[in-house]
Specification:
Blueprint lengths: L1 H16 L9 H11 L1 H20 L9 E11 L8 H16 L21 E5 L12 E5 L21 E6 L7 E2 L12 E4 L19 H10 L81 H13 L17 E2 L5 E4 L2 E2 L2 E7 L4 E9 L4 E9 L2 E7 L6 E9 L2 E9 L2
Parallel strand pairs: 1-2, 1-3, 1-4, 4-6, 7-15, 9-15
Antiparallel strand pairs: 5-6, 8-10, 10-13, 11-12, 11-14, 14-15
The structure holds zinc ion.
Length: 424
């Protein structure tokens, strides 16, 4: 099995290296190699896609949450200082992702008017990971130097963080003119990540260093694949009617079928496929190509839109193929909103006529805010105590009505809730 994997992945890179020109994206070839190497994973992907498709059918404007924030870890793999790109390019790249996926990109104004009705805020956002999979604080950036050519699987140089909970983005000098590649979800351990050329990382304020591909859209595009999007030109001119646009081509009905990738930034109005009526609104028959879509191959400054259909497909993928992202703590800083160790506070007695002794057992001096809530969640007592790490305070709640209450203690590191009962 291992030699087959190596062979197929090697084949993918040899094909790319044989051509000296820029290769916008290697995802199709990479995914084909993965499918060959891991047939079971392909079956799993197919089954999960059926669940995602059902979700889309039932709710064409499906969203995985109000806003879903995906934790990102950058693995910067370098052989020289130019490839070891600075933090501010990585911060800028996160900014590009957040703007592109929320349609707050400044070049959204360049979307042609016929596509404005389908322009989407996906409500998918990204953070630089704040904690590692084992719960320690991090800035979400891992830097590793290596020698030789870029590894076929970068996981061997810098191990992936739990791929179900984090988006791993490897950055390096891929060779062969390749700008990036990714895999479709759900992926498997060690084989589920986005890879991008170091010089294509950045954004309008801190651009990359490769002409025409310096605005961070390589990663916008590759993350689209990671969230289950295909190229707009996938399979060419198929899916040209309302009957088959959801089940063929790019599986999206509001991206017009397109025969081939577009390069540069077209100045004419290419229309490479003939859509037939009835096609879903707002389209009429024979729509022009949406070359400004992030999932085409145009220059970075030519791309500016995800469609509503693409947004739905990505959100459905998060709920089905990548559901572990929804419970990832990767974006939560360590020490904030943690549930504190219950032994830090003891209350005695827990049932009384209103007089309670609260014992603090913190490992260090801690500022604690105490609140008393009734069972309806109403706050009926509020006290801020600056205390030493080990001390006792007495609280008198004799004037409160009989009943069950929650005493909530909050510190800058988290909170703890204890139940008390007042009986008269
Ligand atoms: Zn691609």
């Amino acid at each position: 099995m291992k030699s087959r994997i190596l062979l197929s992945v090697l084949f993918f890179f040899l094909v790319l290296s044989s051509n000296g020109q820029i290769q916008r994206c290697g995802t199709d070839e990479h995914q084909a190699a993965l499918d060959l190497a891991f047939p079971e994973l392909k079956k799993q992907r197919t089954a999960l896609n059926e669940a995602a498709d059902r979700l889309i059918l039932e709710n064409p404007e499906f969203k995985a949450g109000l806003v879903v924030t995906i934790p990102v870890v950058f693995h910067v793999l370098y052989t020289n200082t130019a490839q070891n790109i600075p933090d501010n390019r990585l911060f800028e790249q996160i900014d590009v992702l957040n703007k592109d996926y929320s349609r707050t990109n400044v070049d959204a104004i360049n979307t042609r008017s016929m596509f404005l009705p389908v322009a989407a805020n996906t409500q998918i956002q990204f953070c630089l990971a704040q904690r590692t999979p084992t719960g320690t604080a991090t800035d979400g950036i891992v830097r590793v130097s290596y020698t030789g050519s870029f590894p076929n699987n970068p996981h061997t140089v810098s191990p992936e963080w739990d791929h179900t909970k984090y988006l791993n983005i490897y950055i390096g000098d891929l060779g062969g003119g390749l700008l990036g590649y990714a895999n479709l979800p759900p992926g498997s351990t060690g084989n589920d990540h986005v890879v991008a050329l170091y010089s294509a990382v950045g954004g309008p304020n801190v651009p990359g260093t490769i002409s025409a591909y310096d605005l961070g859209r390589t990663i916008t595009h590759e993350v689209g694949h990671w969230l289950n999007l295909q190229h707009t030109f996938n399979s060419g001119c198929v899916g040209t009617s309302a009957n088959n646009c959801a089940t063929s081509g790019d599986f999206i009905c509001d991206t017009p079928p397109t025969a081939n990738p577009a390069f540069g930034c077209p100045t004419n109005t290419p229309n490479t496929c003939t859509e037939v009526t009835p096609f879903p609104p707002p389209y009429t028959a024979n729509m022009v190509d949406m070359y400004e879509n992030y999932m085409d191959y145009t220059d970075d400054n030519c791309m500016n839109i995800f469609s509503l259909g693409q947004s739905t497909r990505m959100n459905a993928a998060i709920t089905t193929l990548r559901s572990q992202l929804l419970t990832s703590l990767g974006c939560v800083p360590v020490g904030v909103n943690e549930i504190l160790d219950p032994s830090f506070i003891t209350i005695s007695p827990t049932i009384s006529n209103g007089k309670f002794e609260v014992q603090f057992n913190f490992p260090a001096a801690t500022s604690v805010s105490l609140e008393l809530m009734d069972m309806g969640g109403r706050k009926i007592y509020d006290s801020i105590q600056k205390i030493a790490y080990s001390s006792t305070i007495n609280i008198d709640l004799s004037d409160k009505a009989e009943g069950v209450y929650m005493l909530r203690a909050s510190t800058e590191k988290g909170f703890l809730v204890k139940r008390i009962v007042i009986v008269k």
